Amino acid sequence: MLLFVTALYDSGKTLSMTIGFILWSLENYQNQNFAICGKTIASIRRNIVMQLKLWLGGICEIVEHRSQNYIDISIRGKKRIGILYLEDGMNQVIH
Questions:
Q1: Do the Cβ atoms of 3 and 15 come closer than 8 Å?
Q2: Band (93; pLDDT cuts 50, 70, 90)
Q3: CA-to-CA distance for 64 and 75, rounded, in angstroms?
Q4: Residue 45 β-bridge partners
Q5: Which residue(s) pair with 61 in the sheet?
Q6: How far is CA 91 from CA 14, 21, 33, 57, in A?
Q7: Selection from 25, 17, 13, 15 nearest residue 84 by Cα
Q8: pTM of the prediction?
Q9: Burial, 68: exposed, middle or buried (Cβ in 10 Å; 0-12, 13-18, 19+)?
Q10: Sign of the alpha-carbon torsion through 40, 71, 36, 93
Q11: Beta partners for 84?
């Protein structure tokens, strides 16, 4: 499953799409791999990953593995969606 983040404006698209995607995946899947794709890994980290703890901190446990470009998300130890890979536009291989 992929979430493409192409337009990063203050209108709330990134916020609503990211939260919707993560909550949908938490509700419907367990121990699966997903990807968030953007123009660069740096822009994904700046606009999404850094904000996830603020957006979903009361609901989810979020652990970032920076050197491997993925985050691990679970609902406070109950259910784990698996790995959420961070992919940039230059990378054509999805894990």
A1: no
A2: low
A3: 15
A4: none
A5: 74
A6: 21, 21, 17, 29
A7: 25
A8: 0.69
A9: exposed
A10: positive
A11: 34, 71
DSSP conformation letters of 50-76: HHHHHHHTTT-EEEEEGGGTEEEEEET
Sign of CA pseudo-dihedral 75, 57, 72, 3:
positive
Give the residue among 16, 26, 45 at the shortest CA–CA distance from 1: 26
Residue with tokens 């899947």: 29
Q: Which helix (H) or strand (E) holds 85?
A: strand 79-88
Q: Which amino acid is at 65?
A: H
**pLDDT per residue as tens digits for the range 32-67:** 888 888 888 888 888 888 888 788 878 888 888 989
Q: What are phi and psi of 73, to 5 degrees?
A: -125, 135
